[in-house]
Amino acid sequence: QLQLDVQEGRVSALKTQLQEEISTAVQLSQGLTRAEAQADAEASAAKQRIRDELRNAVAEERTWQGNAQAEAAALQECRAKLTRQEAKSELFEEDVRAEAIALQECRAEMVEAQSRSESTRFLPDDFHRTAEQELH
Length: 136
Hints:
mainly alpha, about 140 residues, single chain, 2 helices
């Protein structure tokens, strides 16, 4: 009987030890499940942050490209205006040169007419009249 009691005591102790180990294993398993869930949540949050940062970077890049295109278009328009202005300036300069030449020719004609007029002043009246008619 003593041996049976001792064996029952051992069996009972083994059962208790086994239940404690099972309880510990269940606790460890639950802890591991919570840790896995937390790790999954953290990984998911990190992925979402990366996606958000990437989306923001893409939007920023598009904005930058849009601004660069707008600036390039404005620069191109400015260059076109400058080119048109330069062409107008060149035409204006040509007009001014042409008018200056015409003015010089007119002055030369006036000087020539004046010198003819002065030289005909001392001629007889018939010749003087003829010279005036040529001028007109």
